[in-house]
Structures are given as C-alpha cells and as structure tokens.
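To whoever is on call:

I kicked off a structure prediction for a single chain this morning and the downstream step that reads the tokens threw a length-mismatch warning. I double-checked the sequence; it's 121 residues and nothing unusual in it as far as I can see. Pasting both halves so you can look.
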Amino acid sequence: VDSPIANRCIGGSGFNYNGGRLMQGPVEDPAGFANAVAQSWRERGFAVSQKSYVEGDFNVFADMPGGGELSLKNNDENLWFRVTGTSGCYPGDSRDIGQNDLKELREKEASVSPSPSEGTE
C-alpha cells in the first residue's frame, strides 16, 4: 500500500512519501531470498545491513542516497515477506503539499470513476 499523500518528516520541516508491498505464500529459501534482495540493493548503491533477531528471522535494511530507507522483513513461518520504503525528506510544507496531493487524488478518482447515476437516466 502506497501513501500518495505527503507525510511530515520526523523531527522537523519537509515532507516525504512511503509505501509497502506484501508478498504472501511460503518461501522455500527465505535466507536466500533475503540475501538476493540485499545484493540487489547493494548493486544500486544503497548501504545495506542484514539482521536476524531470532532463528528464521531475515531482515534487510537499506539507506538510500538522499535519506530514503528500505526494509525487507519476514514472519517466523516464512509465509510472507514485506518490503517498505520511505523517501528522503524534501523541502516544503508537508501540510500544503499533502492537501494538494489529496486534491489531485480526488480529481483523478473523479475522472476515472463513473457517477453512480450514470447510465440510469
């Protein structure tokens, strides 16, 4: 789920965006999957760290240029992996940017979604 609305940066001014994806289903080799993701992120120039807090736990974290962050986490049964990301902070008033984002989103939805009464006249 992505957040198309700007968020206020932690600790001050500016705004950022975030999102995430969930991959469901058993993963045969969760350690191998996490290692492949870590390698892919390294190849893109991200600073990567991997941590396991308990057996069967595979977490990958990446710091991106510009202050963004990515993370990959699994559940203990290896039935899903979740990747989340946050962009770096951009200058600007998060409230104004967020209100503009919301306005654009509503306009886009209105132009795509037919009226409930459309075609019933």
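Update from on-call: the warning came from a stale cache, not from the record. Cleared it. Sanity check on the structure: The chain has two helices and seven strands.
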